Amino acid sequence: MQITNASGIIASGRTLAERQVASASIIKGKNHTLVATAAHCIYDLNRIKYHENILFSISEDVEVKYRPMAVAIPKDFVENTYLEYDTCFLVMEERFNTVEAYRKAALEVAFNLPKNLRYSIYGYPNESNLIPAKAEGKAVKDTYKNSSLQGVSCFEKDGMSGGPWITTYKESVVQNSLSILSMNSVENIMWGPYWGKVIECTYKAADELQLDYPDVQLHFFSGRR
């Protein structure tokens, strides 16, 4: 699988001072083609509000920008800053879904898998030179903060946040997490949330554009509903 065809960067923020860039990935839905990234790249925890100016670019076609019309985020991330749920799914504008090459490159997703699987993780450490960084390794549990996060050995940290974690499970290649942070107390480990029931519901809320999932906040961007 050529992961570079299914990955890209998210730029968010109203002003240059607020602007941040993160990695992201295109994933398959039954109803929409979605983009997965870290929730903290879309929801500003300091300002307690969503970034409204979100742009997604494919790594192999960075000049073309796409906007999402909505995003699904776990409520416990927005309301309580639970990093274990630091994942979101962007519902892209309609013209994005008609691009055949992107739909074919979209990744399958899986939830509630066994822990400690072996992953390949990807990201873009340099915005001006979009050559993907890659790390591989077996996931380890968080014995430092005793959270449900998993970690993979990774020497490149900058720009990796939001990038996909890819694993093979029952002969299928799937995305099963993404990068969210590194800890100063733990060198050369990138951490990602375990994609369990809450994140599965978040994915479903995005794909169905449904407000009926109690653990999920579905936000429509300004002027996009």
Structure description:
The chain is mainly beta. The protein has two domains: 3-107 and 196-220, Trypsin-like serine proteases (Thrombin, subunit H, Beta Barrel); 108-192, Thrombin, subunit H (Beta Barrel). Helices cover 12% and strands 42% of the residues. The protein has an eight-stranded antiparallel sheet with strand order 7-6-1-2-3-9-8-19. The chain has a five-stranded mixed sheet with strand order 10-16-15-11-12, with no helix packed on it. Strands 13-14-18-17 form a four-stranded antiparallel sheet, with no helix packed on it. Strand 13 (140-141) and strand 14 form a beta hairpin. The longest helix is centred in the last third of the chain and has 12 residues, at 197-208. The radius of gyration is 16 Å and the shape is globular. The model has no long low-confidence stretch (mean pLDDT 87).
